[in-house]
Amino acid sequence: MSLKAFHIVFVSATVLLALGVGVWGLNHYFQEGGNLNLALGAGSLVTAVLLGVYGRFFLKKLKNISYL
Amino acid sequence: MEVPYTSKPRPDTGLYNAKVGIWLFLASEVMLFGALFSSYILLRVNALEGTWPHGLLNIPIGTFNTAVLITSSITVVMAWASLKLGQFNRFKIYQGITILCALAFMVIKSVEYKDKFTHYQVWLKDGETIRGHIEVPGIEGKPWFMTHKKLEAMEAVDHITIHPDPKPHVASAGGEAPEAHKSENHGGAEEHAHEPRRIEKADIKRLSAFVPAHSTYFAIYFTLTALHALHVMGGALVMAYLWGPGSKMWKTDPERFTNRIEVSGLFWHFVDLVWIFLFPVLYLL
Hints:
The complex is a heterodimer.
Chain A (H helix, E strand, L loop, with lengths): L2 H30 L2 H27 L7
Chain B lengths: L16 H30 L12 H26 L3 H30 L2 E5 L4 E7 L12 H6 L5 E6 L16 H4 L12 E4 L3 E6 L6 H28 L5 H4 L1 H31 L1
Antiparallel strand pairs in B: 1-2, 1-5, 2-3, 3-4
Helix pairs in contact in B: 1-6, 1-8, 2-3, 2-8, 3-6, 6-8
């Protein structure tokens, strides 16, 4: 597996983490309030979207490099 | 005799030597961290209800450190891609940013560790438990690694002062949130719960900083995060070498140098992936 393939695995895991943290933060915000919880939740969801966009950009940029 | 397949891939496997080597190494690393993760899960699942500490870590700092590591993974790939495109100067920039991110991670982790080493839990003989920062007469500033045994040995000291943590025990992003209200306020008005409080040495049953000896939770927390930090340091050292003196190889054997960067990048991704699992497990859940 090349660095390209491992990076795709990594970005996918990171998107899942960001989504999870986003849900966790917003859940805590709705239960207890707190601006930090809101910032963490919203920020993580935005990060998940940005990482998804980055993943597509990365695949396009390195389309000529092998996955092996 | 020249060692074959250091640059070109071996025809039957399609891989050059170092890539086979790093994946074998990473497989052993998966077993190491996998065993520790399994230990953590089993310890936590089997802990008596209500005894597993929760919300003792600083979530904003942990989140920021996670962002730093994710950034470093992006730049390490950009460094490798730059070499693939023959852009050595860009490689230098991206690899330099990666090393800076690694250093930033270590600095932030050190700050987090320092806070744990000066943060205490006191168990009183009447069953009450208090968490916070302490002052010990004769010791300037916040004492490090103080224990009840050390306190007993200090004959001139007859009391300590504790500044109880201000927030109730809930795991939220508001920073460290100790177990506060259920046991710490018994017998006293809640509005006085966070004021500095004098505790007589004779009333202390146990005193511990947030160090491995504090609890199973901190033992496994420090084992996992310190092992991870060692990997970060090792990766940073290798990448710094490849950024500095090791980069001379670009002039003599660019393909082999690019392979080295790929291999170091694979290791770095593994280290970051471990953190991606560690962060939610230790900080959030």
